[in-house]
Amino acid sequence: MKIVMLGAPGAGKGTQAKRIAEACGIPHISTGDIFRSNIKAGTELGKQAKAFMDQGALVPDEITVGMLMDRIHETDCKDGYVLDGFPRTIPQAESLTEALSRTGEAIDAAIDIEVPDEDIVLRMGGRRACLHCGATYHTCFHPPRLENICDHCGHELVLRDDDKPETVKTRLEVYHAHTYPLIAYYRAAGVLHEVDGTKNMDQVFAEIREIL
Ligand code: ADP
Ligand code: ADP
Ligand code: ZN
What we know:
Elements: E1 2-6, H1 13-24, E2 28-30, H2 31-41, H3 44-55, H4 61-72, E3 81-84, H5 90-101, E4 109-114, H6 117-126, E5 127-129, E6 136-138, H7 165-179, H8 181-188, E7 192-196, H9 201-211
Parallel strand pairs: 1-3, 1-4, 2-3, 4-7
Antiparallel strand pairs: 5-6
The chain binds adenosine-5'-diphosphate (2 copies) and zinc ion (ZN).
The site of zinc ion has 8 residues, from loops.
């Protein structure tokens, strides 16, 4: 099962992708998480990506596509994966389609989580991230058991630099200009499923389970 998550930043892609990955026993691959762990480790890739991420801009396709291709060819991906945050541009989607078609494969489902921009601002302002294990919380909608401490690994939670209101605005503009067209792309491919992302996390997941 190869699944692509679509939706604005903050729509709940990561939250749902983790649940799908667990339910289906396949890896959750978040390009944002891969970039953030490279930044944390101080790699060359991390340095290149950080400049774009801090601005709320996309990391160029030349960097992103190669990184994702390497990841999906690792052995844990042989039975499928959930992609979260990739593709984010039409050229990225085309590269993925092309790479898969070489071995007669294709994306089985693209799940678009729909949330209006007004709600997105609220979600990202309250998002708290664990940069150690990648877990995500929300101050109101999904608080950790202990304030500002990750339930899974005990590290401190942070407000990501790119979740500050000025950057969120840019990221939403980037989403509408570059990523939104992917909905039509996957609809044309016959694999698009739209879910109402304004419901609570369990309800959204129930809808996705039905689709899968
Ligand atoms: P969110 O979960 O809020 O949608 P991500 O963690 O997916 O955010 O991404 C954070 C940032 O990482 C993006 O704003 C962008 O700068 C960079 N990024 C992640 N995935 C991609 C991608 N596929 N192409 C280009 N840039 C990306
Ligand atoms: P994305 O990966 O699309 O950027 P996340 O999964 O990180 O989105 O979710 C963004 C924020 O909204 C997080 O703080 C998360 O806990 C919260 N969130 C996710 N899904 C829901 C939901 N259905 N209702 C309310 N808050 C949600
Ligand atoms: Zn953690």
